[in-house]
Every structure is written in structure tokens, then in C-alpha cells.
TrEMBL record:
One of the primary rRNA binding proteins, it binds specifically to the 5'-end of 16S ribosomal RNA. Belongs to the universal ribosomal protein uS17 family. SUPFAM superfamilies: Nucleic acid-binding proteins. CDD domains: Ribosomal_uS17. It comes from the Eukaryota. GO terms for biological process: translation. Keywords: Ribonucleoprotein, Ribosomal protein, RNA-binding, rRNA-binding. The keyword Ribosomal protein applies. This is Small ribosomal subunit protein uS17c. The keyword Membrane does not apply.
């Protein structure tokens, strides 16, 4: 299966992340292009992904009821503004990591 590329929107679970994958679709009647998004649960073994990171997903065997994808690599880290690292620590402590 083809790998998917998306953005992490939630990392509040242990070893799991929620990834939003966007794609461009053309309307068949009017020919207008618009963006469709879909969210996938993915397995993050090292628990290194943060909100805003862009990742590549690969298909794997079913790991749970909703997890069918594995985080293969982080293609681009989220840009954290200088002095604004509090949300990263807050997201990690909020979920018990």
C-alpha cells in the first residue's frame, strides 16, 4: 500500500497518535478543486511525535480496533516559537507520559 503523509493533531495516548491526512479532490460536475481530510490512528513506538509534526505512515497489520498504520518517520518537526515550549511539556504531562 502507498505511504500516507500527514500532520499530528493529537498525541494524548500512549504509543499512539492521531494523524490528519489531506488530499486534493476535483468535483466531477463543476471541476472545482477542494481539500478533503481524514484522520488515522497510528502507532508511535518511541513516543517521540509531538503535535504539529509531519510524518510518513506505512500500513501494518491491525494493532487495535482503530490502529492500522505505523509512524515510519518524522519528515518535519513542529516549529516551536522561542520561549513557548510550555505546550509541549503540558501535552506530555497531561497524558501521563
Amino acid at each position: 500500500m502507498k505511504p500516507l503523509f500527514g500532520k499530528i493533531v493529537s498525541n494524548k495516548m500512549q504509543k499512539s497518535v492521531l494523524v490528519e491526512v489531506a488530499r486534493i479532490v476535483k468535483d466531477p460536475k463543476y471541476g472545482k478543486y477542494y481539500k478533503k481530510t481524514k484522520k488515522f490512528m497510528a502507532h508511535d513506538e518511541e513516543d517521540t511525535c509531538n503535535i504539529g509534526d509531519f510524518v510518513r505512515l506505512s500500513a501494518t497489520r491491525p494493532l487495535s480496533k482503530r490502529k492500522r498504520w505505523n509512524v515510519e518517520e518524522i519528515t518535519r518537526k513542529a516549529e516551536v516559537k522561542q520561549g513557548d515550549e510550555s505546550w509541549v511539556e503540558q501535552s506530555k504531562t497531561h497524558c501521563g507520559k
